[in-house]
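Can't paste images in this forum, so I'm doing it all in text. The chain is below; anyone willing to post the predicted structure tokens underneath?
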Amino acid sequence: MADIFLSYNEKDRPRVRQLAQALERAGWSVWWDRRVPAGLTWRSLLEQELQNMRCMLVLWSNNSVKSEWVCEEATEGRLLGRLIPVFLERVRPPAGFREVQAADLVDWDGTNDTIGLQQLLDDIAHKLGAPPVIPQDPAVPVEPPQPPHPSSAPWKPWVVTTALLLVAVGIYLGVGAVARREAVVPLATPPATSTPSAAVIAEPPSLTASTAPTPVVIAATPTVKLPPVTPATPAKRPLPARCNAIHERQGLGEAPSAADQTFLNKEC
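Text version of the structure:
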């Protein structure tokens, strides 16, 4: 069953084809090709389409106003209350159809943005309601979505760049954490340096009454003068590992903290 039945004269077929295509682009189904399928007669096919149509557009032209077939089809459409007259040319309709307001496509050039065509589409929609098929722009072909190719990588350049930056930041932070852990390791006790070679004379323990029951008389001994002893230069102590770590971070442009600065002034 077609939404719209086009009644026209065969001599107007080129213009009728344009109108049928415009109606189909708007979402309506149109019966206009008068080819008779095998097994049917022209009259039986015509009768079937007239009964099943939702509305009829009778296309008035110099050729159609003289056609008995067009006048008979228009009469059937008027009796069913489904007739919409359309002027393809400025003609006087046959008797019985002159009082019905007709759409004007006399100056229509076949495009969709013509005022006369838009008014005709509005009249059809007012009579039949919204078209059952959503119209699409014929200039933009609709293609089904293509599945992504298995070998195509979904990564975009900015995603790869961001990932590389995150990896670089992670490496930098990891190296800094290792350096900080090394800096807080307890420092090893420096090796004992040689003591000055000065002579140290140990004093004898004092004797108390409990430990020395018998007084002992110690003879005075002559005082021995020892030559002055020059103290040996102490060996240079190696720098702690934390000093090296602080110096490395300063070389990278990092300002030392207050605790690091104090440690530098005191130990380095």
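Residues 109 and 259 are 88 Å apart (CA to CA). The chain has seven helices and five strands.
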